[in-house]
Amino acid sequence: MTSVEDRDHTALRAPAAGTRPLKAGRRVGLPPGTRQLVRLAMRRDRVLLVAWSMITTGIVLGGMAAAGTTYPTAQDRADRWEQLHSVPMFVLFQSRAFSDTAEALAAQQAFAGGTMCAALGAILLVARTTRGEESAGRRDLLAGTPLGRRADLAAALTLTMVTGALLAIVITCGLIAIGMPWAGSLALALITALAVWTGAGLAAIAAQLLTGVGGVVGLAFATFYVFHLIRGAGAAMEEGALWLTRVVPQGWWENLRPFADERWWTLLPALAAVTLSVVASFHLAARRDLGRSLVPTSRGREHGAWWLRSVPSLLWRLDRASLTVWALAVAVIALAIGYIGADTMSAYADTEWVRAMGTDLGVAPEDTFFTYVILVFVFPIAGHALYATLQIRREETAGTAELLLSGPLRRRTWALAHAIAGFLYPVLLLIVLGIAVGIGSGLGGGHYGADIARFTTFTVSLAPAIWVLVGITILAHSVVPRRAAAVSWSLLGIGIFTEIAVKTGLVPELLFLLVSPFAHVNPHYQATWTPYVLLPLLSVGFVAAGLLALRRRDLPA
């Protein structure tokens, strides 16, 4: 069966005798074949493009549309203003607010979610179009066509840059349509576009340094998030550290101040940083061979160890580096959060709104901040679990599954091993998260043993929600293999979007409970042990259905 990629690659074949050669890209100074590769990427990743654009637009427009209902009175706006100035953690993880108007406060809340979603989609798109094609070997096939040496990189950046510009236009028009001031609307839309362009630039550089798609995505997004935390640290510490907000892209975007006397000059360093990253990526690309990276990789041993003779051990071998990096990143960030949060919340635990928030979550006032942060952490950990589970599809498209299944290995055992890995990895990361927060809290003046036990119990209790997504991914791989990635990532996006939307009053809580498994492990929405029985059973049911469906289709699809 001919795949979508194979069909589209026919457009890139060498021209037949008597036909005109490709002229794509020459008129605009891009490498030959760039235009064709852009069309190929648009067709291959059309679901990702649509889902990413809709979720990003929804986060920004949804949060702004709910500004009136989130802060309906002057007292509500004053309370939020006081929270932002009394608890630095909101500034650290979200952004600063420069006015107490409903529009400015809503923009402050949409800043982190909107920029991270925008950057993540751009990073995924660039990584798939560059390193993904090289890893799959398709870039080698295209090397025999009249294709420019760096046409893939140019195509990836062209597509993401244009998508970022279109997102800015849509968001600007949408905000003006719902009655927002045009200047603030344009500023917030430009921040979203800059997040897309910055994410694309970081991924383009990472694609020259590393060979694996997962490594490229991890390095680029980790860099983006570190920049966000540097901005937040400078803003949270205020006097004496505000200069930190002027050395990273997120700080320039924040200082644009949408809906609060915009400062347009901050666009200049932001655009300069994007331009510099794009230029740097092309310079780095010129210094490596096709299929290689600037960071040398180990060739490994010629013969594998005896313990690699099973599928679970092989999966561990493939995933251990990624899992180790994620665990270290989670541990470092959580340790800092635990240490800083313990000291900060001890000063504000007696305030009225903190007590109310603790009552709402069903936790002690001093634990409200940790609960909030841990609930945010569960989404990137779920993303890692989905990426690990989708390894089953990558093995299938790369042909390694066919080699494995040509032996005595049964396909049900092969799929079950991937499902177990998808179940186990998030539990390990959640345990690391709970232990690190507990240790940090202990260093900040708490009790090591009690804090570690309390936070680890809470973090592990979130795992059933991730298992549901893993189970659906296994089922999707068996029923709609080509749509498995789109289905799994879309469900995670829906979970993130509905959680933000329900907090801003954009959608009812009932919708959140119906479409997102994360609602059923959130202490605000559940008060019984029923979800901890039903969610694991549901996950196992999805996996069992996926194993049965896998027996009824051909491999590779």
Automatic annotation (TrEMBL):
Residues 1-11 have a biased composition (Basic and acidic residues). Residues 1-30 are annotated as: Disordered. Signal peptide: none annotated. Keywords: Membrane, Transmembrane, Transmembrane helix. The chain crosses the membrane at residues 47-67, 110-130, 151-180, 186-205, 212-230, 264-286, 323-349, 369-392, 413-440, 452-475, 487-512, 532-550. This is ABC-2 type transport system permease protein.
